[in-house]
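Hi everyone, sorry if this is the wrong subforum. Our group has a chain we'd like a structural model of before ordering constructs, and none of us has done structure prediction before. Sequence below.
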Amino acid sequence: MPYRTPAERFEGLPDFPYTPNYVTVEDDLRMHYVDEGDGPPILCLHGAPTWAYLYRHMIPPLSESHRVVVPDFIGFGRSDKLTAVEDYSFELHYNTLRAFIASLDLTDITLVVQDWGGLLGLAYAARHPERIARLVILNTFLPTGEEEKSPAFLQWRRFVERVPDLPIGRVVKQGLADPSSLSDAEEAAYEAPFPTPESKAGAVAWPLLVPMTPDAPGADIMRSTRARLAEWSKPAFVLFAPNDPILGEAHSFFRTLIPTASNQPNILLDDAEHFLQEERGSSIAQHVLAFISRAP
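Answer:
Right subforum, don't worry. Here is the predicted structure as tokens:
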């Protein structure tokens, strides 16, 4: 049976008053999501090792005019968690994301992605463009195993491999341009879904699932995603924090890869790092709304 974080772990989280929603996806796994507002949907996908809490600064402004849907991937947040690292795969995450979108029958989606949310969300968009209206690409990448990995990523991967109990809240804090901006209560909120080492198996697995060689699992789908996005004709907005030591340099990759990306302003968030939604969430939300207005 999957692990399910006790509900009391989510009581009283700062700036996160949202009623939980659930849908059952592949293999009877329960997937949680925030669902606020009405109108055309904005689907926001988190990465490692966070959960829907990462988008809390963006939900209020976006939900004034849109339906904002923020799921927790399996292994994260309020969603069910498998307790062995080897239980996680690219296929599991992709299939559960696909089932989630189908269950809610989301269409005309503005897709907002970051970190692993980009690997999975862009792979989905490339294969189901009929459901996607536009892309908003925050710090992420499409690794095929052929590129040189950043020293910061390699250090992060080694850290995950050797630490018996991943300190998730501290990892988020250290991934900010100004770690002191995250309060103790907010740091604890990032840690809240993961009360045991076993509950963190999904967070441990993600860095280990990044393709390191061209024949690694997931590398083929990343190559085909790149090829399909190279022919993408719908609006795409690349909004990066370039000082992110892990993924900041991928900004120009997406601006070059996706033909429509160059139609949008080249905006960089110089005062944020990897978890840019945490540091600049309100500003990012305004950029997203302006993009939607420019690209109806």
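For your construct planning: The mean pLDDT is 97. The longest strand covers residues 29-36.
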